[in-house]
Amino acid sequence: MKKRAFSGIQPSGVPTVGNYFGALKNWVSMQNDYDCVFSVVNLHAITQRFDADVLRERTRYLYALLLAIGLDPRRSLLFVQSQVPQHCELTWVLNCYTMQGELSRMTQFKEKSLKRPENVNVGLFDYPVLQAADILLYDSDVVPVGQDQKQHVEISRDIAERFNGLYGDVFVVPEPVIPPIGGKVLSLLDPARKMDKSDPLPGAYLSMADDADTVMKKCKRAVTDSEASVRYDPAAKPGVSNLLSLYAMCTGQTPQEAERDFEGQGYGVLKPAVAEAVNAVLGPVQARIRAYTDDPAQLDALMEDGAARAEAMAAKTLARVWQAVGLTGRPAKGGASC
Ligand code: TYM
Fold this sequence. Notes:
mainly alpha; three-stranded parallel sheet; 7% strand
């Protein structure tokens, strides 16, 4: 029996190369060894304000992008979170087994509350519980994510263990899987921060939808340092090391091998080389995204099929939870209620 991998990505913006190398690329390679379930987690996105049409459009675009990077719906289950009602249902139950204190310690909640004090809604606070519901509904053994999501997977583990401690082995306890290189791709303008698809400064990130000229311009403006030698040293030279690891991830090298490619060269050579390496990855993906978005009927059919398969799995877990806590469930089709 293969282990189950689950992960999700929010349609809160067009994904960046940070999302790609930190998580999505890993999802594609895991298809060989794991039973994979991946979701476009649009319920998470409404903790921010979006125009309704923009959110719907981004959700479809992101689903198309997952297909375009090589997630194969015959091997992986791909679905849109809002099409599977059990996510909200399990969230309510898990809310009753999660402490206010532990949620208030979440780094992302603290950071996002500071960034947008005008909209610190309860959904933003409760976000990690919805994420725990996503993971636990699918009996997930591993959760491939970037470094920034480690704390959210850990709280999912804590909630699962607490629940299991009360009711027996209802949930599989999940573990995060974070790539050693790419787990935290940094902002091009401020290498003290991660690259973020919601960054107000577009120059800070390379979007998966950026055209070749934009990628070149953004790479040329990337913040480096005054030393002018291309060395991989993330602590002393975060900007240059970030560019080197991007180059390495695009060319399939280690950062140390990439460093050797630039021996004796300056940043004027490194920056355009990074842009070309990124463009070589993005070009074919963008063409495949267009092929999917140009065929809305095919996209609808894939989304419908994914949602039906996800719901069948999620309903089984939810029935175990209802049974454990003593909730009267919906009568099962053709059977008794739990
Ligand atoms: P999201 O949408 O912000 O990001 C999707 C994935 O990309 C990773 N990531 C990065 N990796 C490396 N460098 C970066 N600069 C970078 N930025 C983002 C994230 O770690 C993530 O793996 N809460 C999640 C979505 C979610 C989820 C889940 C994930 C909801 N439910 C259940 C796993 C399991 C989020 O906002 O990811």
